[in-house]
Sequence to fold (203 residues):
Amino acid sequence: MSVFKSLLMTAVLGASVNTVGAATLTESLLQCNPQFFQTLYQHRAALSKVVNVEHDNKGNAWIPVKDEEVGIAFFTQPIHDKKLTLSGYYERFYDLDKLGKYYFWGFLINEPIEAVVAATPEMGWQHSDDLYIANPQIKLKQDMPWQPNPSTTNGIAPMVGSAEKVLMLSSKNGKSVLHCSIQGSIDQALLYQERPDIAAGNQ
Fold:
């Protein structure tokens, strides 16, 4: 194989890591479903080049966030996704007692909120206070399926006994955090269903 062909193959492989894989990751996150962690698993080799990645034996992977105060595992180099630039993985958890439990996970994006909204028009973003939300869903009872929740309001806790799921976009120091949230009455069965990474030991 010629040196030129070797360099060309290296360039193509590099482009697939930084562009195609990232687009798949972002599109998967936008759905806010458990398959996101399977997508992380499928691209764990590429992700492992920029951040620590762990996985189970069921086809799920996750990015551990060790600094709970910051809530972000920063990438050693950004991953380009079309018009967006992913620079870290975001994860948070809050237990607000009677107001419910709140789990957040997603990506830190270098571009401001306006650029993310413009890059994802298919989501039909709703402006709510200081952030944007999309695809709000609700479980009125734990044994019921997720259903659309058009009446969701930022800052209002879910009804007791119910759980909510929503895609959120917030601002952080001029950048954006694109993340999913499940919140409210989250028992272990529901948590493990939506967050297979936690079921596998991600703390």
